[in-house]
Design a protein that fits this description.
Layout (H helix, E strand, L loop, with lengths): L14 H31 L4 H29 L1 H21 L3 H28 L6 H26 L4 H22 L15 H8 L1 H17 L5 H10 L4 H26 L2 H18 L6 H29 L5 H33 L4 H20 L10
Length: about 400
C-alpha cells in the first residue's frame, strides 16, 4: 500500500497510536520512579559502595543498549508486539526483584533482567510506531511519543520520592506493576504486525542489510557526535549547575528541560514540519544544541545557565522525532525493526563516549587553566556533526519507499 505524500491538516491518533503513547508514558514514568532510588537506597540507606551500585546500573544500560540492536531484527521476524510484551514482563520482574535484593549478586541479576527487558521492547516499539503511522504523520507521532516520555520523566521521580517513605521495596513493586499495565495496554491496542512471505527477514539478515546500507551507515555513525552532546545534560551541565547553585540546582535544571519538552515539543514540531524539510530540521537542531553548549562557557550565573539549557532543550526536542522519522525513511518496509535496532549503535557509543569525555574535558580544562575548554570542544564536535549529517542525508529520498 502506498502512503500519501501530504499530511492532513489535523492528526488524530488511532487506538494503536494512543496505546503506544500511553504505554510509553508508563514505561518512562515507571523507570524514573525507581532507578534514581536505587542509589538512594543501596548507597544512602544500606551503605553499599557507590562504585558497586554504579556498576550495577552500568551493566543494566549495557544490556539494554546491546540487545536493542538485535531486538529490532527479531521484530522483523516475529513482529514487534510479542517482543514489546515480553520486554515489559521482564522489566516488571527485574524491578520487583530489585526490591527484594539483599546482596550484590541478587541486585546485579535483577538489573540484568531489567536491562534485557528494555532491550527487547526498545527498537520494536519504534518499529511499531512506524508501522501504524503514515509517512506524512510520523514526525508528529514521534513528537507525541517524546512528549509522553518527558511527562513520564517529570512524574516518575515525583511518584518515586513520594513512595520512598513506604520503603524501597514498595516503590520497586509499584514501578514493576506500571510495566505490567503498559503490557496490558499494548496487548489490547497494538495489532499483530507480522511480516509474511518473501519479505520476511531471516535470522539477522536485516541487520546485515542495514549495516551494508552505506547511506544509513553514514547517518548512524555521524549521529554518534550528537549523542556525545546530548549526554552532557547528565555530566557537564549538571556539574556546572551544582558548581553555580549547589546540589539543589538539579531540580530546576531537569524540571526546565523536561517541562519545556512537555509544553513546546508538539507545537514546535508542527511549526518545523510545516516550513522545514526533516533533514534540514535535524541539521539545524544539532547546530542549536552545539551552540547552546558553546554559550555555556560564558554562563557565569545560574539563570544564564538555565537560559542556555532552554536553548539546548529546544534543539533536542527537534532531534529525536527528526532522527526517528529519517530512520524509518531509510528502511525498506520489511526491515524497519532492523534499521531501528542498528541505529541504537549511535546512542550506545555516543552515550558511553559522552560520559567519559565530559569528565576528561573538565580535568583537561582545569590542568590547562582554561575552563571554557569542554564547552568549546563540544561546540566544535557539534559543528562537525551537523556538517556530517548534511553530507550523509544528501541522497536520502524525499518520501518513503513504497
Amino acid at each position: 500500500m502506498t502512503l500519501p505524500a501530504a499530511a492532513p491538516a489535523t492528526f488524530r491518533p488511532s487506538a494503536a497510536q494512543w496505546g503506544l503513547i500511553f504505554s510509553n508514558f508508563l514505561m518512562w514514568g515507571g523507570f524514573f520512579a525507581v532507578i534514581p532510588l536505587v542509589t538512594v537506597h543501596f548507597v544512602g540507606d544500606l551503605k553499599w559502595a557507590a562504585a558497586s551500585v554504579g556498576l550495577v546500573l552500568g551493566v543494566r544500560q549495557l544490556m539494554q543498549q546491546g540487545l536493542t540492536v538485535f531486538g529490532g531484527a527479531w521484530a522483523d521476524q516475529i513482529g514487534p508486539k510479542p517482543l514489546i510484551l515480553a520486554g515489559c514482563l521482564l522489566r516488571t520482574l527485574g524491578f520487583i526483584w530489585m526490591g527484594f535484593a539483599g546482596s550484590f549478586g541478587e541486585l546485579m541479576l535483577a538489573s540484568v533482567v531489567a536491562g534485557v527487558g528494555g532491550g527487547l521492547f526498545d527498537a520494536p516499539k519504534s518499529a511499531a510506531i512506524a508501522a501504524v503511522t503514515r509517512e506524512a504523520d510520523r514526525m508528529r507521532m514521534f513528537s507525541l511519543i517524546s512528549v509522553s516520555g518527558n511527562l513520564g520523566m517529570v512524574t516518575g521521580p515525583l511518584i518515586g520520592a513520594a513512595m520512598i517513605g513506604l520503603g524501597f521495596r514498595t516503590a520497586a513493586i509499584a514501578a514493576g506493576c506500571v510495566y505490567l499495565l503498559a503490557a496490558l495496554v499494548m496487548a489490547l491496542t497494538l495489532p499483530a504486525l507480522r511480516p509474511t512471505g518473501a519479505n520476511k527477514a531471516k535470522g539477522f539478515e536485516g541487520l546485515a542489510v542495514a549495516a551494508r546500507d552505506q547511506r544509513f551507515r553514514r547517518f548512524t555513525l555521524v549521529l554518534i557526535g550528537y549523542f556525545i552532546l546530548s549526554t552532557q545534560i547528565n555530566v557537564l551541565i549538571t556539574l556546572k549547575a551544582i558548581a553555580l547553585a549547589g546540589k539543589g540546582a538539579t531540580g530546576p535544571l531537569y524540571g526546565l528541560s523536561a517541562g519545556l519538552a512537555v509544553l513546546l515539543q508538539y507545537p514546535l514540531l508542527q511549526l518545523v514540519e510545516r516550513h522545514i524539510r526533516t533533514r534540514y530540521a535535524l541539521v539545524g537542531a544539532v547546530l542549536l544544541v552545539s551552540t547552546a553548549l558553546g554559550l555555556m562557557a560564558f554562563a557565569h550565573t545560574f539563570p544564564l545557565l538555565l537560559a542556555c539549557v532552554a536553548l539546548y532543550s529546544l534543539g533536542t526536542m527537534i532531534v529525536f522525532p527528526s532522527q526517528q522519522t529519517l530512520t524509518a525513511r531509510f528502511a525498506p518496509p520489511e526491515l524497519v525493526g532492523s534499521y531501528f535496532g542498528f541505529s541504537a549503535i549511535s546512542l550506545g557509543v555516543g552515550g558511553a563516549v559522552g560520559n567519559v569525555i565530559g569528565g576528561a574535558l573538565i580535568d583537561a580544562g582545569q590542568r590547562l587553566g582554561f575552563e571554557p575548554l569542554p564547552w568549546l570542544t563540544l561546540f566544535v564536535v557539534g559543528l562537525f556533526t551537523a556538517a556530517g549529517l548534511w553530507w550523509a542525508l544528501k541522497s536520502l529520498p524525499k518520501a518513503a519507499r513504497p
